[in-house]
Write a structure and sequence with these properties.
Layout (H helix, E strand, L loop, with lengths): L8 E5 L4 H12 L3 E6 L2 H11 L5 E5 L5 H15 L4 E4 L3 E3 L8 H28 L4 E6 L12 H21 L4 E8 L8 H4 L2 H6 L11 H12 L10 E4 L17 E3 L1
Parallel strand pairs: 1-2, 1-4, 2-3, 4-6, 6-7, 7-8
Antiparallel strand pairs: 5-9
Helix pairs in contact: 1-8, 3-4, 4-5
Length: 264
């Protein structure tokens, strides 16, 4: 697949850390120019320092739950490259808390970033592609929590399940413009979001229930996304692709896991 995305421009939200940075790295490796977006300037600066030797990278600070900031993100991306070929929404937050302890504020924040943010970015990217008369690719990074819930994650699971149907609705409406919309649903992936509990000895024991026998790496997700953005996947749209080492294929898992709080 080397240079399969040469000449294309991809916007990666949440691209400064964890899974998002792994995706940006994979796309640069395939020859794409990449705009990474994040709420945090220090994360963007660190990511650019790492990624710039690999290809063309631009960083834009953006809160994806704010429509005006999303509009600015895509305006800057267009001015930089004079095109937008792909969007990957890899942003997201999770706060593990029992259902009866989830506050209205937490619910609103989770849905605003994870679901509303994907809607705003997806609409902005698709509109730019349609105006230019250009086909395109949109990929949302979800979670297998959108396929099945686990304890203390009701708001997060709801946001990810909503993302699956958002993508499928978009796939139906945008196919006539040559735009495909798909979802990659990771399982456990080593990232800043998962760090508080992947290092836990209890969770390490759970890895044996994953058929592949390991947790994922950001590169595993990046490789799947690169394929979905390429010509080889032109007949794939409205799909939800678990990339989880078989985790979602296993009937049950132990639940004695100490959960933490972190943002991807």
């Amino acid at each position: 697949m080397l240079n399969s995305l040469a000449g294309t421009l991809a916007v990666v939200t949440g691209g400064a850390r964890g899974i998002g940075r792994g995706i940006a790295r994979a796309l640069l490796g395939e020859g794409a120019a990449v705009v990474i977006a994040s709420r945090t300037r220090s994360d963007l600066d660190e990511a650019c320092q790492e990624l710039s030797p690999l290809g063309q990278v631009m960083a834009v600070q953006c809160d994806v739950s704010d429509s005006s900031q999303v509009a600015r993100l895509f305006d800057e991306a267009w001015r930089w490259a004079d095109r937008i070929d792909a969007l990957v929404c890899a942003h997201g937050v999770v706060t593990y808390r029992p259902f009866l302890e989830i506050s209205e504020e937490q619910w609103d924040r989770t849905l605003a970033i994870n679901l509303k943010g994907a809607f705003l970015c997806g609409q902005a990217a698709a509109a730019a592609m349609v105006r230019a008369g250009r086909p395109g690719r949109i990929v949302f990074i979800s979670s297998i929590n959108g396929l099945a819930a686990e304890p203390e994650s009701a708001d997060y699971s709801a946001s990810k399940a909503g993302l699956h149907l958002l993508a499928r609705g978009m796939a139906c409406d945008l196919a006539g413009y040559g735009i495909t919309v798909n979802v990659v649903a990771p399982g456990w992936v080593r990232s800043p979001m998962s760090a508080p509990y992947l290092s836990n000895d209890v969770l390490s024991g759970r890895v044996k229930f994953n058929p592949v026998g390991r947790v994922g790496e950001p590169a595993d997700i990046g490789n799947a996304v690169a394929w979905l953005l390429g010509e080889q996947s032109s007949y794939v749209t409205g799909a939800v692709l678990p990339v989880d080492g078989g985790q979602s294929a296993v009937l049950s898992m132990p639940n004695n896991i100490e959960l933490g709080e972190e943002a991807r």
